[in-house]
Amino acid sequence: MSSETEFLTHIGNAFFADLKVRLSGSNSSHEGRVEVYYDNKWGTICDDHWGLREATIVCKMLNFSGAFQVGYFGAGNKSFPIWMDNVKCRGDEQSVAACRHRGWEEHDCSHAEDAGVVCRNDSIPPTEGK
Ligand SMILES: [Ca+2]
Question: Which domain holds residue 15?
Answer without folding.
Answer: 3-119
